[in-house]
Amino acid sequence: MGVLIFFDINGTIIKRDERTDIPYKKALNLLLNVQNSMDGVDTSARSDKDVFTEVLNKHGHSFSEQKWRTFVKLYNEQLELFKDTDVWRENVDAVKIISKLSATEHKLSLITGEFSMGAKYKLEKIGVWKHFPVGGFGEDGFKRFDIAEVALKRVKNLYNDTFDEIYIIGDTLLDIKTARHLGAKVISITTGSNTREELLAEKPDYIIDRFEEIEHLFI
Q: What is the pTM of this model?
């Protein structure tokens, strides 16, 4: 019995800005033979497959497994091309808190709409992938609740533990709703797509601007 801490990735561990989704966008551009495939598409707190489906529809295409497999191959190639660039950067003091938490008895995991290979590239770039032995990813479900349920099941199976406390750390309103769905406490960080006021309206258990503000809860 212990404490389980789930992290979101974009806007939480990784800084979210116009560079964050460049490899994903380039893969879609190549697939659809267009220049601005994702213009007007909000990717926040959504699974990669959900976003992919919207982009296809936007450009007059229907989803197929063949298109999806082709896109995944193109995306993997783009991730490799960008792995040594600065498209993925640490969000505030994320590396420090994750490194500290990894040295405790707490268990760390991920709930993200990112395809697992994208999550690996992003988190390896800032040196923290090794601290997340398990998680829920974009290929595990179309919507965030489905991904969260898969993540929780995997963690419980891995550690044979039901956990005394579960926390979800994220930057969006959907992270708050996901925490409520799992019966977890939620820590909202104000570095992503929702404002402090929007987050506060959903009454998170904690709201922070930097991770050092919650060190006292876990360390």
A: 0.95
